[in-house]
Write a structure and sequence with these properties.
18% strand; alpha+beta; 6-stranded mixed β-sheet
Amino acid sequence: MNERKVHRTVLGNGLVVLVVENPTADIVAARLFNRAGQRVEPLAKAGLTHLSSAVLTKGTAQLSSRAIAETVESVGASLSTEANPDYFVLSLKTVGTDFSAIFELAAQILRQPSFPPAEVELERRLTLQAIRSQWEQPFAVAFDQLRQALYLDHPYALSGLGTTEGMLSLTPEDLRAYHATWFRPDQTVVSIAGRITPEAALAQVEAALGNWQNPPEAVPELQLAEPQVQGGWRVTPQDTQQAVVMLGYLAPAAHSPDFAAFKLLSTYLGNGLSSRLFVELREKRGLAYEVSAFYPTRLGPSQFGVYLGTAPANTQIALDSLRAEIERLADRPLSPVELQTSRSKLLGQYALGKQTNAQIAQVLGWYEVLGLGLAYDERFPQLIEAVSPEALQAAVQSYCQAPVVSLVGPAPAVEFSQAIA
């Protein structure tokens, strides 16, 4: 995006508009972000953002679910929603000639969803099935108990689907109250990329959303519990053919000076077939069916983790091996070659992730919602290049001292931990 100018405008109602003109293909993509998300949910209503997202496109004050679907499909466009821990987004993509009509539809959906009771009940049943299905997946169980140990009463502790209890408690009135509280222009970012001039795009947003008024009440101030992790073990015996072994740590938020170091750390350890964990634990030692690392970008405290799926008989040695890899990084810095290889891989994937209009619109709106700003597109590669081996080692020493260990697998393989926990 460095060669493409980004036009940023704030409307009178506080709504932020970002536009990038990209005439190479006759496609226009838009993202309508809202600064709500899982982090604003009361724990007793866990799943509120997900259910709202699932039902948002199922009807408005003027249109039925079928009418919305037929309008979108009749021109070959796409329209979808996504609930994220830190935001909600309504996405659309269409050819240039149909953008005006589809964007107007998206704006109506964003402003005036009707949350039909029948649709709420249908999506609730589907979500409850998905929650039950998660408990049949060893990785999902391991990740769930890891998050709960790391975050305790913080909303990040829970799956984006919420909980069975939370989902059963939700009503159409809850969804309407959530929408009325959080879906407002001063909490909304619209990013547009494609074959459209900034003037035309801004006029379209003004026409559809310029008269949207903020309610008189201020946005509620969040009082989120501060995670206080002291390490520990979480074990779920499950009759599976492999054991999942996971180590997790609280990790820096997106605004932290250590954010770039952990992006490099995650890339080095678990990104692809050339990553350290894949080569050492799978290829050389044959310990892992699957192995990787994770470090999601979060507005609040994130989580860094490493995991592998292994034969149950190898659970102890797999756990020891994962620990040894983290301790190795704390004991001595990466070599210049190791660090540069990880830099090149990370920055190459970063560049490839901004090629399509949909990707550009996503990245722009995401930076705005997270409060990183448009300049972050250029700053991120600079931050990655500036990470030294010593800085990465210091970040590991600072954050990766007392892991949460999460184990799922056959009882004889995982219950050994109870004796040493």
